[in-house]
């Protein structure tokens, strides 16, 4: 297994370019500041007073506080207020909350895609089955960093003392725990993740590895039930992380459809994007997907339309296309969120009474301040599904071509690496050869570690794990977004 291969060189080059180019060229910054998104500026106190038909007080807000006058400036709610628009610029975006986390994650995902595409081309031209797939490592890291970003956002909700954000996260976490426990007991004849065969392969390989290390009496001190309970707990955690992204997606979807009411093609694409997680769920339901779509019943027999390997490849392609569709509609959802400022003003005009000018300014400004948070809530679930699918393809030994039959790499028998013996050296030789021997010994130990890892974590295990992860992220999005549709369409109107 070539450790210092061209893949590692390209990976290090991509990491260096990402670090050097981030301050100058950033896809995440371009996504928000390319001129297609516009924000609403809050009105000044002078503008509000002019609309209310009253004279602007000579004392500023700071002077009134210093003089002990705590009475805020108020205006009628039904004033003829229209907010001014302004394109989102880089200077505006730099002060947004979680902007640095957003920029780093999105740029890392872009470079991960580049490294993955390179490794796919490299594997298609060179037989590199014995090398470590660097592109798969980048994809797995993107999934982990995406979950970490969602954890940061959820911890922000937990620290908030206002509202019921903490209760919403806990409720969705418990609901996800119940759904996950039900899903994990479904037989493989209905949900074909491959978890059973994956866990069996993992346990068998661990026992073989333990015996090769001289631990003949050692056995796996866990059962499949314990592993499934732990996996259900992880699913509950992911469900809690995806609670607010699903609720936010429902709101931005409804607003985006309403905003593009005169563009039927965009509305169709928006509906297709919203229902894409449902399609992903169906792709792993064996009676519907593989048994029905891949074969046609002809009397008592059935004709195979698509082979099993081709169906696996088509399923990967469908998920990638659906993720690309959701990524392509990002601007419509973000603009629908920014339009909430004007939407709130229009709702305020229909109310009676007076409102403080500072409350109007705070409401309008708060919408823009959480732009990067909403962007992360929209993009991170898509990235989780996309890079889980890419990891499934790379680590599960699948193929993009519908003509090839993907092979499952068997468990590698762990062999003891031969020690690197130093050659006969003369006493007067330089220390360079000793350094080279130390490097060779280090590489040999790393090769031994990677061989041991590949002997335990086989493609059979990765197929089951990442298939279930992809399906579960889509399931959490379906649950939270459908509840969000019900909440915004019915509960908010009552």
Automatic annotation (TrEMBL):
Gene Ontology CC entries for this record: membrane
Subcellular location: Membrane
Domain of life of the native organism: Eukaryota
Transmembrane annotation, as ranges: 135-155, 167-186, 225-244, 265-285, 367-390, 460-487
Record's signal peptide: 1-28
Topology within the bilayer: Multi-pass membrane protein
Keywords linked to the UniProt accession: Glycoprotein, Membrane, Signal, Transmembrane, Transmembrane helix
Pfam families for this protein: Tmemb_161AB (PF10268)
Family under the similarity heading: Belongs to the TMEM161 family.
Name of the protein this chain belongs to: Transmembrane protein 161A
Organism (species): Gouania willdenowi
